[in-house]
Amino acid sequence: MSSLENILYFQAGLGVLANMFLLLFYIFIIIGHRPTPMDPISCQLTVTHIMMILTRGNIWLVDIFELLNIENDIKCKAMFFTNRVIRGLSICITCLLSVFQAITISPSTSLMARFKHKLKRYVINALFYIWVFNLSASSDAILSVGGFTNVSEIKQVKITKTCSLFPMNYIIRGLTFILSSSRDVFFVGVMLNASAYMVIILHRHQRQHRNLHSISHLRASPEKKATQTILLLVVCFVTMYWVDFIISSTSVLLWVYHPVSLTFQKFVTNAYPTITPLVQISSDKRIINVLKNQQSKFHRIF
Length: 302
Description:
Elements: H1 2-32, H2 38-56, H3 61-68, H4 72-105, H5 119-137, H6 141-144, E1 145-147, E2 157-158, E3 163-165, H7 170-212, H8 215-219, H9 222-254, H10 259-283, H11 285-301
């Protein structure tokens, strides 16, 4: 088990460093230059992923609560609520990113083209409503979890060393599961539809440019590169999401949380926020240019 925990710490460290680098870059772009409509969304997604890594695996959050000497019941409710909110934010913001990119590359003859010039105005409003929605939708987590009391009669399900899920009526548990699953399925469905739309647009674009321009010009298209990056992120997200969903739903429905499955679930949930910044850094031409400029300056000095 210690080797698995070491892997989790390495994964978390890599994810935090990559996301912090990406966050600093987006802050630099947003403050000092003209950002694209996608940059505020990507910046918010990066912040969400930093929070997810720090809280989802309970790697550093537990130590912070212990230093503050917070009561165990409040600590468990805060951690569980935070995890639920951040998970929802990751789903919604990734969905928003794919939808806005689909609007960006849509042809002028499509119905979505009329939203292109309003994207900057919609970004801030959309992010605000996403935060409000997830904070309110995750409020039930405060009532369903608490400190582990070590009393067998209560039939608690231990999810960490000090936290457990409280027993609920089967109907209430089923309704809660259906509502949360419906929300996730809706946003994942929108995400997949937007991704399918982008694939169709890219295919048409590539077929048209084969007759008009060279393949090298098509490969150099920044919109195409950005779209391919988002499609890759969506594929990674959907894969990680369904693995996490299967583990979570099985544990809730069977009312059993195995330590090994929980550790594997932490690894899976931290995989997406760790992979995302690495993909964005390697595919964003602006970041590559900045790194090349810094490298050339370094060689000039030495």
